[in-house]
Amino acid sequence: MKYTPQFILLLPCLLFACGKAPETEKKAPAAVSSPLKESALTTVTFTPEAEKNLGIRTVTVDSQEVTGTLEVGGDVQAEPGQAATITAPMKGTLALQKGSKVPQTGSTVKKGEVLYRLTILPAEGDLANNTQELEMRRVQLETARNKASRMEQLLKDGAVSERAKQEADAELAAAQKAYRDAVGKRELLQGGTGQSANQSVFIIKAPLDGVIQQVYAGQSQTVAAGAPLLDITGLTPVWVRVPVYMGDLDKINLNQPAQVRPLTENGGRAVSEAMPVSTPVASGYTAALTAIFYEIKNSDKSFYPGQKVMVTLQTKGKADGMAVPYAAIVYDINGGEWVYVQTGPQVYQRQRVQVQSVIGQQAVIAKGVEAGMKVVTDGAAELFGTEFGGGK
């Protein structure tokens, strides 16, 4: 059998291709070394000395009878009599007092603080009379000028005395001043900035301590008599208006205080106690909605008129629930609610909870704790700071 040269060259390649491929070594799947339980991430362990230095105290959670609550939205309002709309007493041009700040919405003011200087402008009804007055003053000025010129010439000719010349000059000076006043009054009537000898300034001051809620006019603006300039509302105290359905009105204990907190998204929400205000039913008993009112002392000025808040109302019913001191609750940066549970000697585990309501100094827990758990009260903020470097 005769083989061609091409066949001889391809034979080694065919033999190599038909050969059995070597087996690849199988690698083991990924392995986790030293696995860490999630609970260990929220556990803090102290030495006895460190625990003593932090002053940690715990309470045992138990089931108790708690007051029912109803959470609704509300809005902050100024107390009646503690709001004022500042108006212009007469037509004029507004200006700022030297060194004073520009009134702005949201800025606080003190009683007696100067808000504006109002340069009073004459009434528009004087414009027609001023036209006649201006023409008369012009004629008088021209006559006095001609008389003074004539007296000067007569004095040179020796026809009049020096006294007559002085009287003519005095008449000319008086006529010039009267004409300037008439011109200045015309400029004021037309909205200009001319000066008049009778021009006066009215000082507008804040009638009470509070915050500027609305600004209607600014500096260098000409305003009419009675035009609103700005609104000022008092901050101590403030009222909270709470709209509720008439069907829920009988369930609410209207004699008990409510808990009010801002609508904040982050942690550390401040809860303020609001006392009920005796007012008639705002919408009548035939309406679907009515409004009840509460008063906050607001000594720290944390609430402003117009602010939206969340209000926790106490109802007449009671039920069993888990309650812990409010001091035991800590908040993370996202508003999450946590407590520290003692799981062993000097060992504390941070546990997520859901706060149903806050009544006085007690927080009612919807879920997250069980009866018999020991929850940290004193030192909870310090524990949180030890774990994250922050606080409540």
Automatic annotation (TrEMBL):
Pfam families: RND-MFP_C. Residues 1-17 form the signal peptide. GO terms for molecular function: transmembrane transporter activity. One of its GO terms (biological process) is plasma membrane copper ion transport. Keywords: Signal, Transport. Residues 324-380 form the Multidrug resistance protein MdtA-like C-terminal permuted SH3 domain. Gene3D superfamilies: 2.40.30.170, 2.40.420.20, 2.40.50.100, Helix hairpin bin (1.10.287.470). PROSITE patterns: PROKAR_LIPOPROTEIN (PS51257). The keyword Coiled coil does not apply. The keyword Iron-sulfur does not apply. GO terms for cellular component: cell envelope; membrane. InterPro entries: MdtA-like_C, MFP_Cation_Efflux, RND_pump_MFP. Belongs to the membrane fusion protein (MFP) (TC 8.A.1) family. This is HlyD family secretion protein. The lineage of its organism: Bacteria, Pseudomonadati, Bacteroidota, Cytophagia, Cytophagales.
